[in-house]
Design goal:
globular; 187 residues; mainly alpha; TorD-like
Amino acid sequence: MNEFSVICRILGSLFCRQPQDSLLEPLFILIKEGKLADNWPLEQDELLTRLQQSVDPAIMQEDYQNLFIGSECSVPPYRSAWQEDSSEQEVRQFLEQRGMPLGETPADNFGRLLLAASWLEDQSQADENQAQITLFDSYILPWAGAFLGKVEACATSAFYRTLAVMTREALQAMRDELREAENKISD
C-alpha cells in the first residue's frame, strides 16, 4: 500500500464511517496521540495538529449525524445530490467493471469514492493509472469542492471543518501526482 492509497483510505474512512464505529477507534487513537502526523505523507502539520486537538467523540458523533445522515442532513454525501444528470448506478457500474466488490450501500458516497480510489490504487499495475484518473476526474473532483466547502461551512465541530480543509488539499496533491504519473507514461 503506497502513500496515495493510505491517504485515500484514511480520509475515506473518516467520511464514510460514523465516529462511534469501532473500526475507527485505532485511527482516532493515532490522531489523538499525534502519531498520524509521524506517518502522514503530505505537509499538513498545522491541520493534523488542529485535527488532533478536536477529537471529541460525542461532539463529532452529533456533528456527523447532522452533516451526513438522513433526508434532512445539511450536507448530502452522495455525488448524485451534487451533480445534475448523475446517478449512483453510473458509479457502481464503473467500479464493478474494474472488479471492485460492492455491497448494498450507495457507491457514490464521498467517503466510499475515496475508499474506491485506495482500492484501485492497490489493485493497479505499476504503469496503469487511468482508472484512478477517471475516478478522480469524473466521479470525485467535479463535486468535491462544493461538497467540502459545505462541510466546512455547516460543521459545528472543529474536527469536520479541519477534515474538509485537509481533504481538499489532499485531493489536489493526489490529482497532481496522478497527472505527473500520466505525463511520465505518455513521454
